Write a sequence for this structure.
């Protein structure tokens, strides 16, 4: 069964359409889990032509790492993306399509779906969130699981947001210690619309300093450029990092680690939690 979906480009000039295949379920192999869904695999481009037999991308796509990513996405639940596939259907999908999905990513042919834009109220205005499809959430989670230990070694001890074994309570305790040490003044610094305005070219350049497997950088770049669907209209994402995806917390910390290094270089005492900082 084939299903066609289309999205009108902003301004009404172009239209993106995709043919999707509804897969039938089959027996579940050992060590894997997965549901019926759509798959969109059309693109074929890499940042470099070298394909190591076993590199960082192979670590990301290993059965153990993917299964762990699936369990994390399943436990987090959440609503579906533009294909309307629910977390409950994810298991069947991975059973039926994991081999094709993995091979497409390895070959550089996988193209992520656009995210579904939702807005949630916050103290001042609204926060824009991008909801990826559950399949893309698994892939992003798998990437984050492998890259997080790599970047944890580089991150500043002054940052506390979206990091393993670190919390807002620890950041507050650090503030209290500074007060005890005699500091009397603080500056509340909030990077306005940080997630919406991240320079993607700069982010890719920073990523490439550490991530030497160009296929991984290319895959992350595709996620950054996947676009959003707002009220059934497709919009390009030439800048920013979509909040709401498993990768966005890590990518934001990678980018803001540049700020941490500069503040440390200048001798400032500070604490950062995501895009909020108290120097």
């Amino acid at each position: 069964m084939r299903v066609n979906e289309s999205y009108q480009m902003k301004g009404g000039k172009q239209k993106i359409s995709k043919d999707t295949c509804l897969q039938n379920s089959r027996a579940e192999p050992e060590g894997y889990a997965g549901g019926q869904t759509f798959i969109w695999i059309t693109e074929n481009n890499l940042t470099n032509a070298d394909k190591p037999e076993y590199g960082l991308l192979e670590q990301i796509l290993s059965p153990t790492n993917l299964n762990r990513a699936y369990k994390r996405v399943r436990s987090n639940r959440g609503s579906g993306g533009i294909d309307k596939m629910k977390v409950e259907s994810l298991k069947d999908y991975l059973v039926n399509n994991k081999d094709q999905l993995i091979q497409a990513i390895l070959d550089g042919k996988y193209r992520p779906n656009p995210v579904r834009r939702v807005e949630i109220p916050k103290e001042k205005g609204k926060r824009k969130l991008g909801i990826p499809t559950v399949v893309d959430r698994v892939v992003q989670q798998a990437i984050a699981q492998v890259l997080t230990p790599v970047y944890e070694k580089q991150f500043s001890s002054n940052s506390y947001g979206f990091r393993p074994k670190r919390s807002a309570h620890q950041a507050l305790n650090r503030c209290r210690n500074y007060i005890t040490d005699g500091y009397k003044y603080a500056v509340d610094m909030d990077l306005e619309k940080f997630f919406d305005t991240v320079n993607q070219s700069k982010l890719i350049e920073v990523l490439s300093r550490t991530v030497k497997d160009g296929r991984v950088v290319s895959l992350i770049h595709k996620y950054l450029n996947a676009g959003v669907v707002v009220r059934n209209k497709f919009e390009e994402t030439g800048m920013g990092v979509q909040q709401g995806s498993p990768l966005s917390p890590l990518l934001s910390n990678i980018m803001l680690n540049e700020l941490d290094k500069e503040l440390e270089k200048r001798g400032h005492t500070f604490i950062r939690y995501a895009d909020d900082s108290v120097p």
The beta strands are 2-9, 15-21, 115-121, 126-131, 189-190, 228-230, 233-235, 271-273, 276-278. The first helix runs from residue 56 to 60. The radius of gyration is 20 Å. Residues 1-52 have pLDDT under 50 and may be disordered.
